[in-house]
Structures are given as structure tokens and as C-alpha cells.
Design brief:
Blueprint (H helix, E strand, L loop, with lengths): L1 E7 L5 E3 L4 E2 L7 E8 L6 E9 L25 H16 L18 E8 L5 E6 L7 E3 L8 H15 L15 E8 L6 E8 L8 H12 L5 E10 L2 E11 L4 E7 L2 E7 L9 H13 L4 E7 L5 H6 L3 E8 L2 H13 L5 E5 L2 H10 L8 E4 L8 H10 L3 E6 L2 H13 L3 E8 L9 E7 L3
Parallel strand pairs: 3-5, 10-11, 15-16, 15-18, 16-17, 18-19
Antiparallel strand pairs: 1-2, 1-4, 2-3, 4-5, 6-7, 6-9, 7-8, 9-10, 11-12, 13-14, 19-21, 20-21
Helix pairs in contact: 2-3, 7-8
């Protein structure tokens, strides 16, 4: 079949005029394709040939570009990617945002990647990323231009270790097999490296010490690493939880962010969240902090390891950080001490529930400004309720999902806030993901 690609799906796949989703094509491409899913919607197709390329099409750098589900836009010129992302924010808010800020580098920017172990029925082993539109199938990745070259080199050594062992990839439907994921991380500014082997929590498939030693040696062939085993415990009817075992090297790595005229140092543990693009995170955070007014008290909701709040601590008398993850709070408190910050306090728990407790305290002080950086689902209902009733003078809302952000902002504007700025920032070149900052103000 032949068709013209008209646009993109939300997940960055090409969309024909008959609403067929096809990976690795871009608007303006005239293509030949075959239907791979006809009966269920959305219909899906597989690219056979580019008949006439779009004016925005470029030669992708990676040999996996026609397979990989990670880089859906690598075949589109970077300025065209930025324009598409800016348009997505404009559609979400029905208002023209400030011009998008590009990533300082468009390749080699990621400081963390998670690779999947998989096997087919014939026992052939795969360690890499998911195939586009064919999850959960995995291909053997040999290069990735989103990361430093050492990621692919370590991946190759770990795959070689696995191929000489009897270990099986984890198969979720049967709770069988050992190996789930390999996570690699680095401090871009410190060059420190971490490797985490994620395995099944089913004791029938536990690794032996000899097998773990083989894994450690495979990683250490590429330099000094902080190396961990992460055991993934899943059982029906009980919450998923993890146990970590330190295998070799330092028990953490460090990363530096240059924020608001100062260099802050952050400890990264295996379970720590840290923005995946260090250089672009500096732009994102510096832009967000520049929107903050001078304040006596700032709340930093969904604060993770405290990076935004710590940057804001220069501009406020006091900062309160609230974070659900206990591990992140421990890291945040250590990061605060490491950076000599004395005017910040962290509370562990759900953002809305923690604010409920704080409001009930007789010594409660209303925040002048609030920073929020929630997960993709956006603000939870209770946190949103508190923002509407506490009415801080300014809300700086950082989001990785402009759609849920726009819905939350609409509720806040109905409650009396004015949307002053919309500032998209590209943290993830060659993917459809986008970060966006909104500044809302309220006059009492």
C-alpha cells in the first residue's frame, strides 16, 4: 500500500491519512507499507520503502534506526523536531508558548539507560531495547548514540557473560527466569559510572556467587564502576518492592549541576531519580528558578533528590521539600548537607497528605511560592486542592507531560491564577518527549 504521512501519534509514530500508525516515518514522507494489524484499532503498518522523502528527513546516525523503539524521530532534522514539540505544547494549551529551548547536545546526552534481557522460544538470547511497535520483543543492541560509547561496550560484555551461562531471561507470565534489566548510569560532569543488574525475586532463580562474580568482571573490564544487584520482588496481592545488594566499587556516584550561579553536587544511588539529560536539566532548572519571585517560604513538591529546591534555597529564607520515595528523601538530605544548605527541610510522603498535616500545625506558615514537578499523571487531586486554597503568589510548574499539565493549569486559572509563561525545553532529542515549564501568579 502507498500513503502520505500526515502527522504523528501522541507516541511519535507516523500517521497516514487513513490513520494507520507506522514507526520511523515523518510527516511529508510518501511511503510503501504493509498492514500488520487490521482488525483492532489503531491499525498499524510496517514501512517497506520511502518513495519520496519528506523535506525534513535526514539520514539517521544509528544502524538500529529502522528497528529501535527508543529513537522514533532520529530520521527527522533536529529543527523540525523542535518545531513539532513546540506545536504539541501550543495544542495542549491553545496558546503560543515561548520559543522552545533546544538541548545543548542532540546526541550522547543521556546519563541513564535501561536495557532488557529477553529470549525467544528457541532460547536465543537478546539484550537491548524494545523493537518499535513490537513490544515486548527485544533486539540485540550494539550501538546507541544517545549515550556515551561505553554503554554499548558494557552491554556487549554483559551479553557475552550471559551467553556463556545457563541463566534465563525473566518471563513475567510464569514468574520464571532470572535476568530482567541492566541499568547503566553515569555522572556526565564527574565521569563516574554505575551498573545495576535487575533480577527476579523468585528464590528458585537466584544467581550463584560465581555467576555474580562473572557479571562484575564483565563490567569491570571497562573501568571502575559502582555495581549493584537489584532484586525485584513481585507477588500477587502485595506491592512490588526491591532489595539492593552492593557488589563492587563505590556505593554511589556523584553528579554536578551548575544552578543559579553555583555548582551543586548530588549523590546518585541505584534507586535515585535524576534528570536523564544533565546539560539540559541545568537549562530546565535554571529557567524554572529564574521565574521564582523573592520569597520567605518556598514549597518544592515531588522534589525527588531536592535539586530544584536546593537551587531555590538561594532565593528564599526557607524551602520545604516533599517527596514520596523514602530513598529519594535520604539522598536529598545528604545532598543538602553535602552542599552546605541549611534552610531546607524535607518531608517524606504523598504531597497532598503532607500539606494537610502542615496546614493543621498551629505554627503553619503559608508558602509564598511553590515549585511542582509531578509524575506524568500530573498533580494529584489533594495537592491541587491545596494549591487552590493556599493561593501562593507564584507556582512554577515543571512537567514531562504537557497534556496533564494543561489540564491542571486550566483548573488553577479557574481558581484565580493567571498563566504568565509557557516555556518548553527539549531534554530528549530524537524522541517525542518534552519538558515544559509554566509560571502561574495569583494576586491576593
Amino acid at each position: 500500500m502507498e500513503a502520505q504521512v500526515q502527522g504523528f501519534t501522541l507516541k511519535g509514530y507516523g500517521l497516514t491519512d487513513d490513520d494507520v500508525e507506522i514507526a520511523h516515518v515523518i510527516p511529508g514522507d510518501q511511503i510503501l507499507f504493509e498492514l500488520t494489524r487490521k482488525k483492532r484499532l489503531p491499525q498499524k503498518g510496517r514501512l517497506l520503502e520511502i518513495v519520496t522523502p519528506s523535506p525534513d528527513r535526514v539520514e539517521p546516525r544509528c544502524l538500529h534506526a529502522r528497528t529501535c523503539g527508543g529513537c522514533s524521530w532520529q530520521q527527522m532534522a533536529y529543527p523540525a523536531q523542535l518545531k513539532e514539540k513546540e506545536e504539541r505544547v501550543k495544542r495542549a494549551f491553545r496558546r503560543t508558548p515561548d520559543p522552545i529551548i533546544p538541548s545543548p547536545v542532540s546526541f550522547g546526552y543521556r546519563n541513564k539507560m535501561e536495557f532488557t534481557f529477553s529470549e525467544n522460544r528457541g532460547g536465543q538470547k537478546y539484550l537491548g531495547l524494545m523493537i518499535a511497535q513490537a513490544e515486548p520483543y527485544v533486539f540485540n543492541l550494539t550501538e546507541c548514540h544517545l549515550t556515551s560509547p561505553w554503554f554499548a561496550a558494557v552491554l556487549s560484555s554483559v551479553r557475552a557473560w550471559w551467553e556463556t551461562s545457563p541463566l534465563k531471561a525473566y518471563y513475567p507470565p510464569a514468574d520464571a527466569g532470572s535476568l530482567r534489566y541492566l541499568t547503566l548510569r553515569e555522572g556526565v560532569r564527574t565521569s563516574q559510572k554505575m551498573a545495576i543488574l535487575n533480577v527476579s525475586g523468585n528464590p528458585d532463580y537466584a544467581l550463584t556467587w560465581a555467576q555474580l562474580d562473572g557479571f562484575v568482571r564483565a563490567v569491570q573490564a571497562h573501568g571502575e564502576f559502582s555495581i549493584f544487584l537489584r532484586i525485584h520482588h513481585t507477588k500477587k496481592g502485595t506491592p512490588t518492592h526491591f532489595t539492593e545488594m552492593h557488589l563492587a566499587g563505590p556505593d554511589h556516584i556523584l553528579e554536578e549541576l551548575r544552578l543559579d550561579g553555583q555548582t551543586l553536587v548530588f549523590k546518585i544511588s541505584p534507586s535515585s531519580f535524576f534528570q536523564p539529560n544533565t546539560l539540559s536539566a541545568e537549562i530546565l532548572y535554571n529557567t524554572a528558578i529564574s521565574m521564582l519571585p523573592e520569597a520567605r517560604l518556598v514549597y518544592d513538591l515531588y522534589c525527588g533528590t531536592g535539586s530544584l529546591g536546593m537551587a531555590a534555597s538561594k532565593r528564599a529564607k526557607q524551602v520545604i521539600g516533599i517527596e514520596l520515595s523514602p530513598e529519594a528523601v535520604l539522598d536529598a538530605e545528604e545532598n543538602m548537607r553535602r552542599n552546605g544548605i541549611e534552610n531546607m527541610t524535607f518531608f517524606e510522603g504523598d504531597a497532598g497528605k503532607v500539606i494537610t498535616r502542615l496546614v493543621a500545625d498551629p505554627a503553619f506558615t503559608r508558602p509564598d511560592a511553590v515549585i511542582v514537578d509531578p509524575p506524568r499523571a500530573g498533580l494529584d487531586a489533594l495537592a491541587l486542592h491545596h494549591l487552590k486554597t493556599l493561593r501562593p503568589k507564584a507556582i512554577v510548574y515543571v512537567s514531562c507531560n504537557p497534556l496533564t499539565q494543561a489540564a491542571n493549569v486550566a483548573e488553577l486559572t479557574q481558581a484565580g491564577y493567571q498563566l504568565q509563561r509557557i516555556q518548553p525545553v527539549d531534554q530528549f532529542p530524537h524522541t517525542y518527549h518534552i519538558e515544559n515549564i509554566c509560571l502561574l501568579t495569583c494576586h491576593h
